[in-house]
Description:
A: mainly alpha, three-stranded antiparallel sheet, two-stranded antiparallel ribbon, 7% strand, elongated, B: three-stranded antiparallel sheet, 8 helices
Amino acid sequence: MDATLLDAEAEAAVLRVYRQVFAVLAREAGAMIVDPELLDVDQAILDAFAEAGSDGLTVEQATLACRAYPHDLIVRRFEVLRQYGAITKLVDRPNEMRHRAAFAPYVMLMFLRRMSVQGGQAELHQLLTLEAHSVSDPGATEDDGLASIERLTKVFRLLGNELAILVATSTTAQLRENAQLAWGNERLIEQAEKVHRIVLDRWPPLHRACTSLRMALAAYADAVQLAAGRLVERAGTTRALGLLPIETWLTFARSSEPEVLAGVLDGLLFDAAAPDFSPQTLVEAVETGRRTGTARMAPPRPTSESEAPESAAATDREDLRAEAERVLAGRSSVDVVEVVDEAGDWITARRVLAELTAAHLHDELDYELVWSDGMRIDPTAGTPWATEGVFRRVPR
Amino acid sequence: MSTPSDAVERRLYNALWWAKVQSAGPLEVAPDTPAVARLTRAASPDGSTVWLVPTLPSGAGDTVLEELGAPPVAVEQPNETARVLAICVACCWTDRSGPAWPGSTGTLAQIRSVYAGMRGRPEQSSDLTLIIGSLRRLHATHWLLWDEKAGEVRLGPRVITWTPADQATLRDLCRHLPDPPPAVLTTPPVAEPDPDPLPTTEPESAPLVTATTPKRRTGVTDE
């Protein structure tokens, strides 16, 4: 079981740091190494050169010295290192077989190894110590202090921004992968504040730059708080921050070789996949079953205060009957002109007429309105023009 | 006794049984099968067989799925099935002072009666379909042992994993369900084993007594 999921994750994290470190130097995207093992190969080659002394090495000697690694791999890396000038010919002439190695790549390798441990945090710590040193140096000038403060401001802004953006936009899994950004932040901030204090004490006019550094530090601290909050919230009641997201497990289970899968599951006992019926589930199911089983509730009815109120149609009919009887006033028929004159103005008269018409048209009322051909014209009346007609009872 | 090769053999033996249980669920084995680490042994009432049930540490069960936001194993008509399981618990767990396993045998008539009682209405024709379907599902997942021919049911080996707290909850639940009518069994109850003094009874009853110390038991059967 040599390649577990965690190893793969760690490897990916290391590579990410390398990539970030060299992004500023890469000629084009996609040309970065994809396997951290290649660094081991590089180191082996450089180690071989260190052993070789001042005579240098030929390619063959180098591959022989690094026989722990595949031959073609060594040759390939050798070529790459030579193209970048990490390895050069001993004397620059055609057919020169011997090579020497520069010491700078090795320093870089050492640096990389350190960077990979904590994603650059350790380096940042040391950088901060160095900055503190340089600003407390008696020979340091105000410009040195300003430059130092500005550098720190930028570093912390980048740190804080990256984390804040991750908190706001990424999934929990991504956030967890990048949690190194949040590690050890207290000591980092402390150290930065120390530098800040020294600078502010020595060169008070730099207070403006110092303010931006303070703001950057505060923003970083906030981002760390937010990230921690999100991780803790996602961890649920188990508070197991190391609990991998379920997608990771699913992918791992689907894409693993049987041996790898068996290796992980070795010593793990689990139940066969089966539906779970916990006692709580049973209780809930019975409760809901009982509820639907009870007698069906009657739909809500109005409480019967007195007798059921009549429908709107009935009320309407009785209103019309009352109006008709009022107009007839006991008689069996009445002249329309008389009704109109009684009403006074046309506004009232037309309302009365409308009701008489309604009474005439109503199925259940025994009244009729019969129009004749004559027309009464009287300028003194409330309604000067009135068609003659009769409103009367219809004998049944 | 515990030489390295013994330990390796023991591990392989455990791994084999674990693999079986992990793929098939609880297993019914002969009672002289040696014990397997972390598999609880649930002896059937007559002692003729033993169920091996995986025992998970508390907090490692299906609740973890919920925590991870993963869907649980799907089951058809989960509520109906859970209700029928609750009714079977009420019917088969007659002695509620003790553990639910092995319980006694319940009948389909009992289940139907309790079901109608729980629903609070006379039995409907669709009820039987629902009950039988649920019983089959529960039998397939070892929650119940359902004998379809005889129309009889017993609690399955999975119930042995119920903790005392679970049992208290279920006791309460049973009190809320209507009491089942007395069981009328078609087969003789398993509680009365064949009294024939056959010589085979001797080694068979011996493992039953020492069911919790299976390592020594292998020695007993070897005699």
